[in-house]
Amino acid sequence: MPAISPLDGPVAVTGCSGNTGGHMVRELAIQGYEVRACIRDANSWRGKDSVDYLSRLPRVEIMDGCDLFKAGSYDAAFKGCTAVFHTAAVLGNSADGKSQPLGSGDRQMDVFNGGVIGTQNVIDAITASGSVRRLVYTSSMAAVHGIGEARQVVPAGHEWTETDWASNGIDPEIWQDPGNAYARSKVETERLINEAADASSGKWDAVTLLPAMICGPILFKAQVGQWIEQIGRIAAGLATTWLSEYDHYYNIIDVRDLVKAHRLAAESSVDHRATTGGSRYLMHGSGGRSALRLGTEVRAIIHEYFPAFTLGNPKTVTASGEPVTVQSSTVNDCKKAKSVLGATIRPVEDTIRAIVETSIELGIIEPQLAEPARDA
Question: Does the reported pTM lie above 0.85?
Answer without folding.
Answer: yes
